[in-house]
UniProtKB/TrEMBL annotation:
Keyword annotations from UniProtKB, A to Z: Ligase, Magnesium
PANTHER family assigned to the protein according to its UniProt record, in alphabetical order: GAMMA-GLUTAMYLPUTRESCINE SYNTHETASE, GS CATALYTIC DOMAIN-CONTAINING PROTEIN
Keyword Chaperone recorded: no
Protein name: Glutamine synthetase family protein
Cofactor: Mg(2+)
Domain GS catalytic: 118-452
Pfam families per UniProt: Gln-synt_C
Record-linked PROSITE patterns: GLNA_ATP, GS_CATALYTIC
Domain of life of the organism encoding this protein: Bacteria
Amino acid sequence: MRGVPDVEAAREWLHTRNIQDIECIVPDLAGVARGKMMPTEKFFSGPVMTMPASIFAQTISGDYPEDDEWFQHNPTDGDLYFRPDYSTLTTVPWESDPTAQLIHDAYTRQGAPLETAPRNVLKRVLKLYEDKGWEPVVAPEIEFYLVKPNTDPDYPLEPPRGRSGRPEVGRQSYSISALNEFDDLIDDIYDLSEQQGLEIDTMIHEEGAAQMEINLRHGNPLVLADQVFLFKRTIREAALRHEMYATFMSKPMSNQPGSAMHIHQSVIDKESGRNIFAGENGEETPAFLSFIAGHQKYLPKVTCVMAPFVNSYRRFSKTSTSPVNVYWGYDNRTVGLRVPYSSPQARRLENRIPGSDANPYLAIAASLACGYLGIVHGLKPDSPKSDDCSSRSKSLPRGLPEALGKFEKSEEMVEVFGEQFVATYRAIKYEEFETFMSVISPWEREYLLLNV
């Protein structure tokens, strides 16, 4: 179903399935699939795939930031080189002709991994763990909304009609009957996922109207980031089949809860195969507590990665069920860092801060970086919280500029992510913020037009 070891195996895999075309794709900083479509024969007969360096310097609107003292564009917009990762080879089951998709990695002309490519960023963080003899394990949970088609951005989004012919109006958390409203769509999601070798652990109806959540099985962080990247494409395509949109906006509707991408994390000692968060007698280890403490200290510095757009911070409102603090607790969903009850070998930390709009490669990399720094610096967390922390002081940035300021001024994050990545990411996000500020909102027209 998914992945082959090398180019020769890829030839056989594609020939057996009579694949005519290949989508050669790479995730950009926003998690958008960039790349080229080409006939199978050209893929094997042509040179290495190239694309301009500017694909990793685009804002979400397709604009480019201006040069400053830290960030400069490639003056000639020269080519980058892209090498296929054959372990990601799979079909594109929604295409009418037999088509495959293959994720590529970005390199400079000199053959070095490009620092600003999200997949390379995650690999950079994973190398830190590898050098310690550790292997992190993650399990993402992705929330999203189904909405009526919306072709005019001036109009608010609305829930779609289910098989009953009626849209949801209330909140139906974990409702099976609400999930059954979209049975045909869900069947398509499962079918398209199976054809790509993507493994869904569970699917539930979340709190919002027509809000769903997909939980993925735990595994290698790079593999799981690839799966989230492909799942987003898959869910959008399945929704379009049923005349709906699927959106991963963090806060698509003002009167509904936001959508998150929770990340469960544990760390395995590669030599022994044991979870380093559990001692010989099942007790919590200093490494586990330091992993938590690392998140408490460094999450505010990487919030701009967990919440990458202006809209992301609407999810962090005082009336929201989304935790906006870095407290931790056992099975407490009002804190940003939850420790689910589990066996010692399955002990893990759930980071509840990232939004579903976050780039999965970057969000997983940032979360693992926080934990890594906590362990290597021997940090200690505060006491776990067992009460409702929803109304406690907010310790995360409340807006994109504030979050970017913490990120770019953090020496630890510049060292972990690389100066080139931090410079590029901040330039893109500041440009996106300026673009947003040029748009006048309905709220301003409603309350300021005749009152000020």
